[in-house]
Design brief:
The complex is a heterodimer.
Chain A (H helix, E strand, L loop, with lengths): L2 H4 L16 E2 L3 H6 L3 E5 L2 E6 L3 H10 L1 E5 L4 E6 L3 H8 L12 E7 L5 E11 L2 E6 L4 H12 L5 E4 L5 E6 L3 H7 L3 E2 L11 E6 L2 E6 L8 E6 L4 H12 L4 E4 L1 H10 L35 H6 L7 E7 L10 E3 L9 E8 L6 E7 L9 E6 L2 E8 L11
Parallel strand pairs in A: 1-3, 4-15
Antiparallel strand pairs in A: 2-3, 4-10, 5-8, 5-9, 6-7, 7-8, 10-14, 11-12, 12-13, 13-14, 16-19, 16-21, 17-18, 17-20, 18-19, 20-21
Helix pairs in contact in A: 3-8, 4-5
Chain B lengths: L4 E2 L4 E6 L2 E6 L1 H7 L2 E5 L6 E2 L4 E7 L3 E5 L4 E6 L1 H5 L3 H4 L8 E4 L9 H9 L1
The chains are: A alpha+beta, B alpha+beta.
Chain lengths: 391, 120
């Protein structure tokens, strides 16, 4: 065991920073009281786990889990030309979404590389909330400001004034309904990727049926001052239903099983949307076009790597950065693992990897070099573990 | 059996005669998180102090098991290979890793010295 090993966590965005420069969640005291272990993530000190990350993972798959995502960046775009500005700034057709609707989208560079992946909520006819990754906050704000400059709208970085709590799992809705003093008039029939406004003891809460776990669930945006009371109310209400607080370790294995890419691992400035299974996100032919449209239309080079899912045997997982080979003794790698773990739900290793485009067919055998040992794997269709349909 | 010795690699060593029983500390287990895979050397393997002799993987990270003494592996814990969660539930007991027969013991950390190390 060495100290260095302890901190090889959660991919590329984990950086060791001076504790004094780390940003802290408005829920930090609540987490400490709950016995959380913390990790440095994208410049924030956030809960890594509270007890067993496997128990947290299973709780989300079978009951519910509560996550503090206050590190995420919230950027408001508002004004009469906000829809047009976002159509220009982002790859998707954001002017086409309705009030109360959410859409996953991409912020691309001119060369088609991914600056960030975002979820955009339309909160009014001329109001949008863009939720960006914590590590990309500055880049996302700068790009949105620059691209919106010619439009009649403003871009406001609200990240410091917004806390985010995610309630995820098959029992999430039932728990949300039982929280005392939490009034959500639009909750009945609220569909996935839709959002409504709620009131928690006098504080407005933006309630979105979105998440990053592959389960049903909600993301709750609110004033940081009210966040501890909501967290505790959810914890108390949900305890009997199996709700547990969950850290970033469980969040990462949950999103991996769900086949959801993570910025910094699968998504980078060097990858085009088509390489990472997001070819349907960009909408060509919008009036005025979007930044990166020409590069997306030209497409990746014929030999550019493509993201695949890999399933292995045994218990040794490939991890981010491990080389992928086409045979047990090949000298030259044909790809690299971007994320990997022993799947808590499936019990075997799973990974996402960028591999040569001729090796993407499901069933293709590949080998992952796990610290000197070639571990056999096969290309599989993602998600690795799909949500069970409600009966 | 005498008091436990510790190493800077976050391992504990219990000496009984000329055999050292070795595991990782509670602190190390907590830092790793849920252990899901343990690989240990075969009985009969000659080991050298300071060299890697095994692997301990958790969901989120990879740790290595170092030999704290020169000697020969005389026993390994099959139970912890079959059920790696023993490392988390009982790191100083059922989660032990290997036993090594040695000729001489190097200087190791006392419990107090180890406590000071992890408090840093």
């Amino acid at each position: 065991m060495t100290e260095g090993e302890f901190h090889r966590l959660i991919g590329e965005l984990t950086v060791a920073l001076d504790p004094d420069t780390l940003r802290r969640s408005p829920l930090e005291a609540v987490h400490r009281a709950a016995g959380a272990s913390f990790t440095d993530f994208a410049g924030w000190q956030m809960p890594l786990r509270y007890g067993s990350e496997l128990a947290e993972h299973h709780a989300v798959r079978t009951a519910a889990g509560l996550f503090d995502l206050s590190h995420m960046a919230e950027i408001l775009v508002l004004g009469p030309e906000a829809p047009a500005a976002l159509d220009r700034a982002l790859a998707g057709h954001l002017s086409g979404i309705e009030e109360g609707q959410a859409k996953y989208s991409l912020l691309l560079a001119e060369d088609g590389g991914i600056i960030d992946d975002v979820v955009v909520y339309r909160t009014g006819p001329d109001r949008f909330l863009v939720v960006a990754n914590a590590g990309n906050r500055d880049a996302a704000v700068a790009a949105l400001r620059e691209r919106a400059a010619g439009f009649d709208c403003v871009v406001a970085d609200e990240s410091d004034d917004v806390a985010l709590i995610a309630l995820q799992g098959p029992r999430a809705e039932e728990i949300l309904r039982e929280v005392e003093g939490f009034d959500i008039p639009g909750l009945d029939g609220l569909r996935s990727y839709r959002a409504v406004s709620g009131d928690f003891r006098g504080h407005e809460v933006f309630v979105a049926r979105t998440g990053y776990t592959g389960e049903d669930g909600f993301e709750l945006y609110l004033d940081p001052d009210a966040a501890p009371a909501l967290w505790e109310a959810l914890s108390e209400t949900g305890a009997g239903a199996g709700l547990v607080p969950c850290g970033l370790a469980a969040r990462d294995t949950l999103r991996l099983e769900a086949g959801m890419p993570l910025y910094g691992n699968e998504l980078t400035r060097a990858t085009l949307p088509q390489q990472v299974g997001l070819g349907r996100v960009p909408v060509p032919g919008k009036p005025g076009g979007f930044v990166g449209e020409e590069a997306v239309a030209a497409g990746p080079a014929p030999d550019a790597p493509v993201l695949v899912g890999l399933a292995g045997e045994g218990r040794r997982a490939g991890r981010s950065g491990y080389a992928v080979f086409a045979s047990g003794d090949a000298q030259e790698p044909v790809g690299v693992v971007t994320s990997g773990a022993l799947s808590p739900t499936l019990g075997h290793p799973i990974a996402m990897a960028l591999v040569h485009p001729r090796l993407t067919e499901p069933g293709t055998p590949l080998w992952i070099d796990v610290r000197g040992t070639r571990m056999p794997a096969r290309v599989v269709v993602m998600p690795f573990s799909a949500r069970k349909k409600k009966s | 059996m005498s008091a436990l010795h510790y190493t800077a690699e976050h391992e504990w060593v219990a000496v009984d005669g000329d055999v050292a029983r070795i595991g990782i500390t509670e602190y190390a287990a907590e830092q790793l998180g849920d252990v899901v895979f343990v690989e240990l050397p075969a009985v009969g393997t000659a080991v050298t102090a300071g060299r890697v002799v095994g692997e301990i993987e958790s969901t989120k990270s990879v740790g290595e098991l170092y030999a704290p003494v020169d000697g020969e592996v005389v026993e390994t814990n099959h139970a912890v290979v079959d059920d790696p969660s023993l490392v988390n539930s009982d790191p100083l007991g059922a989660g032990w890793m290997i036993a090594v027969r040695f000729a001489s013991l190097p200087t190791m950390l006392t419990a107090d010295e180890y406590a000071a190390l992890i408090a840093e």
